[in-house]
Amino acid sequence: MSIQQPILSDSHARIGIVEDPEGLSAIRRPGYPAVIWQRSPMARFQTWIDGLDPQHLPSTRTTLRPNAVPNALEHLCNAAGTPDCEERACLVGDISALAYVFAEVMQADFLLMRLDIVTTNACRRFHIDAVTARLVCTYRGTGTQYGLASNGEEPGDISTVPTGAPIVLRGTNWPVTPPCGFLHRSPPIEGSGETRLVLVLDPVDSADIEETHHSMH
C-alpha cells in the first residue's frame, strides 16, 4: 500500500492509496480517515454506463446480507429496464464484490446499500458522515470530493476520487478517533446536465436488525 503525504502540515491524517480490494482494510490502521482503491474502469463499461438513459439506471435503498446483493441487483436492474448484457453483469458483479469486501473489513452481517441517481447538488457541503464507516463508489459522473480543513472551514485543497474508484471513509461513530479535519462532499453538478450513479454501503449491526424486527411485531 502506498501512502499519500499529509495534506495539512499540522495533521497526522493520511489518505491510504491501495492497489487491490484487500488494501481497503487499511481503514482500520491508526491515522487513516480514508482509503481509496486506485483503479480505472474498463473503457467499454464506462462508455456503456455513461450512455445509458438515466431511467434505466438501477436505484435502491435497502438493508440486506452481503450474499443477497447479487440477486437483489438483478431484480433492480430488471425493474429499471437495464439492458441485460455483459456490461450489466460487470456492474452487478463489481457491486457484489465490493459489498463482500466491505462487510469483511467492517465485520458486518448486514449492509445498508444505496444506489443513488444524482442530478442535483446533493450533500454539496463538506462534512463527516454520522456512521462508523462508509464505502462510496461513483460508477457514472464525477466522484466524491475531499480535503482537510481546520476551524470549521472548507478545505483549501480539494481532491476528487476518480470515477469507478471506491473510497472508504471513517464516520463520526468510528471508535476512538481524534478529529483530523478530513471532510468530503458530493460534487456540485446542478445545471451541468450531468447524471451520477453512486453506490453507498454502510455497515449495519445485526442487533439493530433484531431490534427493528421486534418493534414491528
Briefly, what is this?
The protein is α+β, with helices and mostly antiparallel strands. Helices cover 24% and strands 25% of the residues. It has four helices and eleven strands, in the order βββαβααβββββββα.
Question: How would you describe this structure in keywords?
Answer:
4 helices; 8-stranded mixed sheet; 217 residues; 3-stranded antiparallel sheet; alpha+beta; globular; disordered C terminus
Describe this structure in words.
This protein has helices at 43-51, 69-80, 86-106, 206-215, and strands at 2-3, 15-18, 34-37, 60-64, 110-118, 133-140, 145-148, 159-160, 167-170, 182-185, 196-204. Helix 1 packs across helix 3. It is globular. By secondary structure, the chain is α+β, with helices and mostly antiparallel strands. The strands form two sheets. It has an eight-stranded mixed β-sheet. Strands 8-7-10 form a three-stranded antiparallel β-sheet, with no helix packed on it.
